[in-house]
Design brief:
Blueprint: H1 4-22, H2 30-37, E1 59-60, E2 63-64, H3 78-93, H4 98-111, H5 120-130, H6 147-151, H7 153-162, H8 165-177, H9 183-200, H10 210-223, H11 239-248, H12 254-261, H13 267-280, H14 285-294, H15 299-314, H16 320-325, H17 329-341
Antiparallel strand pairs: 1-2
The chain binds magnesium ion.
Magnesium ion binds near residues 77, 78, 79, 117 and 301.
């Protein structure tokens, strides 16, 4: 028996733990993680990659390697910063208010602008918010990154708390479009909220992930709009084609899924890769999360998205060490607890 309150806590804590597990090796290749870290199984500090003479390198035999950033063991990045800001806005307003969400997202960004790991699209869009532009117009057509799904789990909690699925979906769209207008990024944002909601319902405790895949397939068809001339130059490839591949290769080797789906920061790579791992490791969330992280790529975000999904399904599945080592874990548990105990109102009308 998994308690609903633990599922709320698991959702937010899972995001932060996955983020912090992946943080030291974000963008690295799996071979580079093996070479410098062995295997990531705990929350660790970044290690500068060095050659045999101890000199810090920016590339090795596997390719470029991103220099480490200024994070300490147990710290988290933009994924969790923006997720918590969204959760706190919903609690404070007792529901969804786009202007308040934009204001609190902007404040969270400003507090960690230099050291939060924010992506280019988010930075550019939030700088427009800073110039008092309406959150209805700040999105960028080239925004194909995974910022929408990485931060959207509180909207799934809102849907569960109020039963207002349609309002939640419309808000997931608007929050995505505040920064990202590529239809794949927007759809991934909506899917993450919707699937968190689904996992909070009783009917997902079954042994098999078939129903989960069936649901996400019909959701992606409904919410992934066609590429237009404004964004089709970025790259071909649709979220629904990747999810279709997963649906017909549910038990493929992880390495094959990694090759075919990719796990870069693009929404139509990292989101399907996360979904593949989540459905494959349906009853083994710890193994699934660690495997996801150790494939590198945008692994603070694949970790955050996997962690949120797994927390929604399993509740507190984390090892005690992870919770102990995570920065602000008490605060995150308090926020989730408050979210669970706050009576929220449904959306009555959408901002125009
Ligand atoms: Mg990040």
């Amino acid at each position: 028996m998994v308690y609903k309150k633990d599922q709320y806590i698991g959702t937010l804590l899972g995001c932060a733990i996955g983020d912090s597990l992946g943080m030291p090796v974000e963008t690295w290749k799996p071979e580079q993680i093996r070479k410098y870290h062995g295997r990531i199984e705990r929350l660790v500090a970044p290690i500068p990659p060095t050659d045999k003479d101890g000199k810090v390198v920016s590339k090795d035999e596997y390719g470029k390697i991103r220099p480490i950033r200024d994070f300490k063991k147990g710290e988290y990045t933009d994924d969790t910063i923006l997720t918590l800001a969204l959760a706190e806005s919903i609690i404070e307003m007792k529901g969804l208010d786009l202007n308040h969400i934009a204001k609190t997202q902007l404040e969270a960004f400003q507090a960690r602008r230099q050291n939060g790991g924010f992506g280019w699209t988010t930075k550019t869009a939030f700088e427009k918010l800073e110039q008092s532009e309406s959150p209805l117009t700040t999105g960028l057509h080239e925004g194909i990154g995974n910022a929408p799904p990485m931060k959207m789990s509180p909207i799934g909690l809102y849907m569960d708390s109020t039963g207002d699925v349609d309002g939640g979906i419309e808000y997931a769209r608007r929050i995505s479009e505040m920064s990202h207008l590529d239809p794949r990024a927007v759809a991934a944002g909506i899917l993450q909220a919707r699937m968190i909601y689904e996992l909070l319902q009783d009917n997902y405790t079954s042994q098999y992930s078939d129903k989960f895949m069936e649901k996400i397939m019909n959701q992606v068809k409904e919410h992934e709009l066609k590429l237009t001339s404004k964004n089709s130059f970025i790259e071909e490839g649709r979220l629904q084609d990747k999810l279709q591949w997963i649906n017909s290769h549910k038990y493929a080797p992880d390495a094959e899924a990694y090759e075919i789906l990719g796990n870069s920061s693009k929404s139509h790579e990292s989101y399907p890769f996360t979904i593949f791992m989540f459905q494959k490791y349906w009853n083994e969330p710890i193994t699934g999360l660690l495997e996801t992280i150790n494939y590198g790529g945008d692994c603070d975000t694949t970790g955050a998205m996997f962690g949120a999904l797994a927390g929604a399904k399993h509740g507190m599945f984390f090892s005690k060490d992870w919770i102990r080592d995570l920065k602000d874990s008490d605060t995150i548990i308090e926020v989730a607890d408050k979210f669970y105990n706050t009576k929220l109102y449904k959306v009555l009308r959408f901002p125009k």
